[in-house]
Amino acid sequence: MPRFPEFAERTQLITGSVFEKFRAKMQEQGENLVRLHIGDSYIPPPYEMPVDAGFLKEHPGFNRYCDTFGIAPLREVLAEKVKTDNALDATPSRIMMTAGACNALSVSMQALLNPGDEVLVLSPYWPFFRGMVRVVGGTAVEIPFYTPLYDDPGLHIKAHLEPHLTPRTVALYLNTPNNPSGKVLSKRQLQQVADFVREHDLWLVSDEAYDGMVYDEHEHFSIGALPGMFERTLSIFTFSKVYMFSGLRLGYVVAPETVLRNLNKIMVHQLYGPSTLSQQMMVSAVETRSQWSAAFVDHSRELRDMFIQGLEISPQVPEGTYFLFFPIKDYLDGRDYWEVIDACLGNGVSVAPGEDFGKDFGDYIRICFTGEAPDRLELAVRRLNEIFPR
């Protein structure tokens, strides 16, 4: 019974921001710090931002509550988008707007899990998802997955996953293109995941935040488009990545109407619904995506290549997303891992420590190669090469 000054037990089950422990040192660096720790784009959106007097006059309800599932014009253009780009069997009634992918993933866990239930979490994974499982009393069962696929593309996925099943398993969390490893699953690999999920009557939570962020002839496939998968898949997207608008805090879920109704029950008790104005702003951006998105992805690939070519070490080349993710155990040079992380900060570069992405990655770091302008990235490369000499 958490009477004053105690807090509920769930607050002890999760951590705050992944980067909270570095806040003081990052603040000390000020503008000198090259921020490679967070997944963001330094480029402002290239599409028109129609928030002027004329736009507001044209949308007199911009300041009002809207349908908690989202405004009709945006759900209509998104239905066309996911049909065309992702081959998902979507209609406007099968789309629910959320306050970013974070909100979508959080309400998904609250809707799918009872206390004691388990979710198979393929690792490395986006750090906050584990906390979302824990806060509802669930257990995240970590399975090393994406990094082994780089070494063994023919991995027998069913045999790899089945030892982790228990009678309490209710769902599997998939993230491709993957943050942090940059791995992009092939259609053949996705089919194996789909077969496993269907065989064991599991839900599939498909985190597709990096939809479209793929390089070098790789393709992003939505697992919910495979036969027999749409009815059991929650496909989750965001405007934070390819749309270059993380500050907008807008995302959406594509799923059957029965799924969305249950997610919506929970969302309305948290935030009622996402911003009406934010949704109105994105209708044109979705309609014009083919005019600008490829240029952004190409530029991101150029930044990836520039960063990798400048480093004196050789990380795994990511197939998609914003990130390099690699172990540094061979570059410690007698130093402790956390000494090296501190040395990065002391040298004016922030990186994300690997342990936050899964228990098997305590000697890794994650670097974002899109969050700073090219001249700042070149500065970061020089500083990192002082810390990680070949």
How would you sum up this structure, described in words?
The model has no long low-confidence stretch (mean pLDDT 91). The protein has 390 residues and is of the alpha/beta class. The strands form three sheets. It has a seven-stranded mixed β-sheet, sandwiched between helices. Strands 9-12-11 form a three-stranded antiparallel β-sheet, with no helix packed on it. It has helices at 10-13, 23-29, 53-58, 72-86, 100-112, 127-135, 146-151, 157-161, 187-199, 257-267, 276-287, 289-310, 337-346, 374-387, and strands at residues 34-35, 95-98, 118-123, 139-144, 169-175, 203-207, 233-238, 251-254, 323-327, 349-350, 352-353, 364-368. The protein is built from 14 helices and twelve strands.
Measured on Cα atoms, how large is the radius of gyration?
A: 21 Å
- The succession of helices and strands, N to C, reads HHEHHEHEHEHHEHEEEHHHEHEEEH
Please summarize the sheet with the most strands: 7 strands, mixed
* Total number of strands: 12
